Amino acid sequence: MDSPRHAAYDPPMTGDALAPGTELFGYAIQRVIGKGGMGTVYLAKQLSLGRQVALKVLHPSRLRSQPQIDQFVREAQNAGRFNHPHLVLVHDAHVDAARGLYCYSMEYVPGRTLAKLVTERGPLGASAALHLIYQVAKALAHAHRAGLVHRDVKPDNILVADNGLAKLADLGLVHDKLEGVGSSGRSVLSLVGTPEYSAPEQSRDPKRVTAACDAYSLGACLYFALTGRPPFVGTTVIDTIVKAATETVELPDHLEPGQRVLLGHLLARSPVDRFADGDAVVQALETLARGGEITVDQPADDDDTLSDEDAVDEKDAPAAGGAAASSKSNRFKRVRRRRRH
C-alpha cells in the first residue's frame, strides 16, 4: 500500500513538540506531559468548556504508515467505549486527514505515572503497591468482560492521582478478541507490548494474547512497584524475553507468605499457572485483603502433564492495604500446573 499523502502543515514548534498556545480543534496547547511511540500527550485547555484535558496527538513520523494511523484511531475508539473509574476517560477524537492531524482528548489526571512515582520516591510498601494494583485489576476486569485485552500494561501506563486514585491509560495496543487477527502469511519478528512487562507467550506470538497475558503484566507492575525494577532485565530485548521464558523470578524477601503466593502466580511462566483474567486477580486481592487463606487447588494427576505434588497452601495472608472487601467469593481461580521434569 502506498504511504498516505498529506498537505503540508507547519504549526509552531518548540523542539519536536507543538509550541505552547498552538490551537488544534478548539484546544490550546499548554505543555508536554508525556511522549510515546505513537504520539505526544499535551496538557491543553478545551476552549469551549474552559477545562484542562490531556490531548494526545499522533506523531508526524507515523503519517507515512496507514496501519499506524488506523491503530491510533482505533486506540481512541477502543478507549472511548469505556466509562470506568479506573480507566482514563476519552472525551472525543478529531481527524483532519488532509492536513495530517489526528488527536483525541482525555481526562487530565493530576499526578504522575507509577514509573515516575517509584523513580522519584523509591519502591512502595506492600500495602500501597497492592492497593494500586487492585485498582488497575478492576479496570482490566471491566475490559476483559467486554472481550478486550490491553497488551501493554506497564508502569508508564498507570496514572496515579495525587489522592492515590489509579487509572489505566493507553489502549493503543488493545486487541478485540471478537475481531480476529489477520495474517500476511510471512514469518517476521513482531513484538507487541513492552518486553520487560510482557508475558512469555505474548513475546512468542503477539497474535495469540489472552487476558492471562494482562495478568502477567500486572504482576510485573506490582514487582516494579515493590522493588523499583522489572522482574527480568537483559542486556538486549531478546535476552530479556529469554530470561522471562526460562528463568524463575526471585520474589522480594520482605513480602508476607500470602503476598508471595499472589505475586508468584501473577508472574507464572505458563498461563495455566496464572490467573485467567482481571476478575481472577480482583478475587485474589480481595481474599488477601480479608486475611483469608489462599489455596490453589490442584487437579488429580493423570498420565500426561499434570501433577498434584506442588499444591500450595499459605495461611495468615495479610490485608492488601486500601483494597476494599466485597461480597464476592473468596476463592482463587483454580490454577493448573504442569508436571516438573
Helices and strands in order, then pairings?
Blueprint: E1 13-14, E2 17-18, E3 23-24, E4 27-35, E5 39-46, E6 51-58, H1 66-80, E7 90-96, E8 101-107, E9 111-113, H2 114-121, H3 126-145, E10 148-149, E11 158-161, E12 166-168, E13 175-176, H4 200-204, H5 211-227, H6 237-246, H7 257-266, H8 278-289, E14 294-296, E15 312-314
Antiparallel strand pairs: 1-2, 3-4, 4-5, 5-6, 6-8, 7-8, 9-11, 10-13, 11-12, 14-15
Helix pairs in contact: 3-5, 3-8, 5-7, 7-8
Notable characteristics:
single chain, 341 residues, alpha+beta, Phosphorylase Kinase, domain 1, Transferase(Phosphotransferase), domain 1, three-stranded antiparallel beta sheet, 8 helices, 15 strands, disordered C terminus
TL;DR?
28% of the residues lie in helices and 19% in strands.
Instruction: Give the low-pLDDT segments.
Output: 176-190, 296-341
The share of residues in extended strands comes to 15-25%
Summed over residues and divided by their number, the pLDDT gives a mean of 79
Q: What topology, given as strand order, has the largest sheet?
A: 3-4-5-6-8-7
At the fourth CATH level, what is the homologous superfamily of the largest domain? Transferase(Phosphotransferase) domain 1
Number of strands: 15
Q: How far is it from the N-terminal to the C-terminal residue, by CA?
A: 49 Å
Number of DSSP helices?
Answer: 8
What's the helix-strand series? EEEEEEHEEEHHEEEEHHHHHEE
CATH architecture of the largest domain: Orthogonal Bundle
Q: Indicate the structural class.
A: alpha+beta
At CATH level 3, the topology of the largest domain is Transferase(Phosphotransferase), domain 1
Give the helix level as a range of percent: 25-40%
Radius of gyration: 21 Å
CATH class of the largest domain: Mainly Alpha
- Biggest beta sheet attributes: 6 strands, antiparallel
- The total tally of domains equals 2
- The coarse overall form would be globular
